[in-house]
Design a protein that fits this description.
This protein has a single domain, classed as Spore Coat Polysaccharide Biosynthesis Protein SpsA, Chain A (Alpha-Beta Complex), CATH 3.90.550. About 30% of the residues lie in helices and about 25% in strands. The chain contains eight helices and 13 strands. The mean pLDDT is about 85.
Length: about 250
């Protein structure tokens, strides 16, 4: 079974002062001012992922009161409260497994809750299966660096600046697909460290062990709404253009 797992328990400190009042995934976006998380849940539903697990903690009641059992969004939602003894994104996912919300037989799509995207999850799942992958990481081309980059000579003299260049290599967009077999590794890591990060710990460990890990490179629209600056710069018209189909 394919399960959608959304990380939406963080305090969103980079989005303060908004997150003193809102859970970060509940900030309104787009012309219709729908919660950010609604676009995530509707995207999962659009691609036939009907079983959704929301990993919650900070201001969890805001999420539960809005989404309830998920029926009006075409999904069935389970809520799993974060365990403070299992820290990090990997810890939150392992906690969901220990609560029975995900099993070793499942394929699960992990979605960071502060990401807006119209990524084709159906095609990403197809790619994941065709490759026989244990972990598939969503990667985007043409990521624009948000600051100027200096061109230096060997002596450290500045030859010039390139303003906001595009990176040549694809970047992680906070969406990945994992097989339930990774819980063996997650349990191992939990015995070794207090905090487990999916990108920083789990993926590198899988690669080191020779497990099939693939990158799904896409030109999809994606936007990280994880800071006040990013939220203020978000073009609601662009949200409507790229994600409006989810609200039809």
């Amino acid at each position: 079974m394919v399960v959608g797992v959304v990380l939406c328990g963080g305090k969103g400190t980079r989005l303060r002062p908004l997150t003193y009042y809102f859970q970060k995934v509940m900030v309104p976006v787009g012309g219709k001012q729908k919660p950010l998380l609604e676009y995530v849940v509707r995207l999962l539903s659009y691609h036939g992922i009907r079983d959704v697990v929301l990993l919650v903690n900070y201001k969890a009641e805001q999420i539960k009161n809005y989404f309830d059992d998920g029926k009006r969004f075409g999904v069935s939602i389970q809520y799993v409260m974060d365990d403070p003894s299992l820290k990090g994104t990997g810890g939150a996912v392992l906690n969901a497994f220990r609560h029975g919300a995900i099993s070793k037989d499942d394929t699960f799509v992990v979605y960071y809750g502060d990401i807006l995207s119209n990524i084709d999850l159906s095609d990403m799942l197809r790619f994941h299966r065709e490759k026989g992958s244990v972990a598939t990481v969503g990667l985007a081309r043409r990521f624009t660096v948000r600051v100027g980059v200096a061109d230096l000579d060997g002596d450290g003299r500045v030859k010039g600046f390139v303003e906001k260049p595009e990176l040549e290599k694809p970047v992680n967009i906070g969406i990945l697909i994992l097989e339930g077999t990774v819980f063996n590794l997650l349990n191992e890591l939990a015995r070794e460290k207090n905090e487990i990060d999916l990108s920083g710990d789990v993926i590198p460990a899988l690669i080191e062990r020779g497990e099939p890990v693939y990158g799904y490179v896409t030109d999809c629209f994606w936007y990280d709404v994880g800071s006040t600056e990013r939220y203020e710069k978000l073009d609601n018209g662009l949200v409507d253009e790229k994600l409006g189909f989810l609200l039809e």
